Amino acid sequence: MRRKAEFYSFLRNVANYYGTDVDALIRGESFALEVPKAAELGENIQQRSEFLKSINLDYVTDLSGYKLRGATEKSITGRKKDGRYLARLDHTQGKYQLAETDSGIIVPWAMFDNFARFGDRLAALYAEFVQTQIALDQLKVGWYGKSVAENTSAADMSDVNKGWMQLAREEKPENVMEDGATVGKIKIFGEGADFENLDHLAAELKSGIDLRHRDRNDLVFLVGADLIGKEAELINKAHGLTPTEKAVLGSQNLLGAFGGMRGIVPPNFPARGAVVTTLSNLSIYVQDASVRRSYRNDEDRKGIVDSYYRNEGYVVEDAGLFTAIEFENVKLPGEDD
User: What is the superkingdom listed in this entry's lineage (predicted)?
Assistant: First the structure.
């Protein structure tokens, strides 16, 4: 590291901001974040992704407990002749459970030196780099996470935590479609497909959510890049579009309404995935007193080891407001039966 003076100045600013001991910070010791600062850090990470900042990030006291929002049994408005009309929160869908989560990254000396060249922008550039990686990982776990391993090793991060898809499988398995006409396969597009296009698929998924939710205007159709790309390809072929017309259309221009819902391709979403829900139905919970940070210059690794530790978990607030396809079972035209 050529810019050690800037590094130590950076650490002094961090210590001052978080109210921690600068000497301990320079030694690489971790420090706990007070709740307001922990929440502010979480919000800063959330801002690194348009999708992530559209869902809920909540700080809770306990490692496990009831969902903060949960679901109601039915509509909450009516009347009762001899009393008050009341709906009850349905806590039968299960509790939330947080797990130890450790995000660690090595910021190479060369990268830090480059950030330091920008003077007052050093802290902002450093934060953007680290926080963007954390945000993308949170989304990856949200869609691919299946279990909580003592020692994680899965390349797709499926063993870091149980994400939204896995929670849906467990809490309301009938809302996760595994089969089309053939057991274990869902064929989309082409002759003999279970769904001829994405509009058909979206409408089918929408019909699977609880009846009281079907007329909501905040429902969204989350869809993978492979499915959007294939639909664009088929439209181009069917209409004989020129290369210029294809470029004007593009995959993103297909993201209008599917089954009457807005289409979104979230970051790190399964390429063949599809989900119908609302953004407000998806949550990440963090235990407020669990958050720790550390920054350590590591000579052997030739970089700064940056660590963000917390107890974290995923929540589908209302399992009846979430339907999906099992993305690993999707087959596209031309693939082996």
Answer: Bacteria
82 vs 223, residue with greater confidence: 223
In one-letter notation, the amino acid at residue 306 is D
Token reading at 139? 């989304």
Quote the CA–CA distance of 28 and 85 in Å, as a whole number.
58
Which residues form the domain of 266? Answer: 174-279+321-331
pLDDT of residue 252: 44
pLDDT, the chain, mean: 91
Alpha helices (H) along the chain? 4-18, 22-26, 35-46, 109-116, 122-144, 164-171, 198-206, 225-239, 243-249
Number of domains in the chain: 2
Contact status, residue 142 vs residue 277, Cβ threshold 8 Å: no
Q: What is the pTM of this model?
A: 0.90
With a CB cutoff of 8 Å and minimum separation 6, the contacts of 9 are none
Same domain as 312, residue 325: no
Cα diameter, the chain:
78
Closest C-alpha among 41, 43, 45, 51 to residue 143: 51
Closest CA to 209 of 276, 119, 255: 276
β partners of residue 59: 286
Q: In DSSP terms, which residues pair with 293 in a beta bridge?
A: 31, 308
- 65-69, 109-113, 178-182, 251-255: which range is least confident on average? 251-255
User: Is there a single domain that holds both residue 151 and residue 31?
Assistant: yes
